[in-house]
Amino acid sequence: MNMTYTEILSALVDGESVDPAAVAAALEDAGARAALVDFVRLRNAARADAAPLPASLDRLRAAGPPRRVLRWAAAAAALVLTFMAGLLTAVSWRPDARDPAAPPQPARVERFEPGVDWHPSN
Amino acid sequence: MNREQVDHLFVAYREPVFRFLRRFVRDGMAAEDLTQETFLRALGAAYSARGQERAWVFQIARNLARDHLRARTRTPAVTELREDAGRRGDASLGLELASALATLSDDDREVFLLKEVGGLGYAEIAAACGLTADAVRSRLHRARLALRKQLT
Questions:
Q1: Considering CB atoms only, which of B84, B94, B144 is closest to A10?
Q2: What are the extents of the domains in chain B?
Q3: Mean pLDDT highest for which of A19-28, A83-92, B71-80?
Q4: Which end of chain A has fewer CB atoms < 10 Å from its terminal CB, N or C?
Q5: Domain ranges in chain A?
Q6: How many CB atoms lie under 10 A from the CB of residue B50?
Q7: Would an 8 Å CB–CB cutoff place B91 in contact with chain A?
Q8: Nearest-CB residue to B33 (from A38, A47, A66)
Q9: How far apart are the first and last CA of chain A?
């Protein structure tokens, strides 16, 4: 198996079995030594996660749909409700069906009483 | 597996599984759900990997994470990990690592995170990902060189 210096040191960092002579040869190389240091830095950075576990992981929940599925279901239900509400509103506001040539219904009716609101002038 | 056995696995592995998933899918809330789902999948599942329970749990987790990434169409949320890196004080490398990880292929990022965050050995990663130990070593090496190049 032919491994590069950095590959040998990468495996060494991982605690895997490596040929000591190959490690010695790799460590003679300044570039490989620098890579080794960087591999350790990468590991430290990757493992530095001090954020506490979320409370949702305090215990294993009962079997059922996951939260994100429930969230999607809730969003879908809200959309359906909105659509239904819009549909009902449209139905209630729909004008009466009638002949399009017919005059519109009056919105207001003014009545004038002869002799009270107006007088014939003869 | 029965509930008692899975509860035991949950207590033992929920933290590394969650941290692996959070880094892999780059979405904390999805990682919480996927962590729960990982162990719920183990309920009633036939467990035959004797002595390799950690690899088995991580195999379920990575399969769920892969499915999640395939289904997800929105842009990965890198910002969340950036904020976390800033909180813990190693902002300089932590911030850049989150971005650099996002540039790796899913295959390389997965192997790197299973090793560095999950703490799995080569044989366990190989079992979890369906690879040979040599392929794991090679991918890890490739991922490290790529990250190193990004960060220098």
A1: B144
A2: 3-151
A3: A19-28
A4: C
A5: 5-47
A6: 7
A7: no
A8: A66
A9: 126
With an 8 Å Cβ cutoff, is A94 touching chain B? no
Q: Coil, helix or strand for A81?
A: helix
Q: Tens digits of per-residue pLDDT, B48-84? A: 666 789 999 999 999 999 999 998 755 555 545 544 4
ipTM confidence:
0.80
- Cα distance between residue B139 and residue B82, in whole Å: 25
Give the torsion sign (CA, A46, A47, A50, A56). Answer: positive
Q: Which residue has the tokens 């239900």?
A: A77
Q: How many Cα atoms occupy the beta-carbon half-sphere of B112 within 13 Å?
A: 30
Tell me what pLDDT residue A65 has: 64
Which H or E element spans position A67? helix A67-92
pLDDT at B38: 94
Per the model's pLDDT, the better-predicted residue between B47 and A21 turns out to be A21
Report residue B5 as tokens: 């056995």
Residues of A in contact with B115 (CB under 8 A): 14
Across the interface, whether the CB atoms of A15 and B121 are under 8 A apart is answered: yes
* pLDDT tens per residue, range A91-120: 666 656 677 788 878 888 888 888 888 787
- The highest-level CATH class for domain B3-151 is mainly alpha
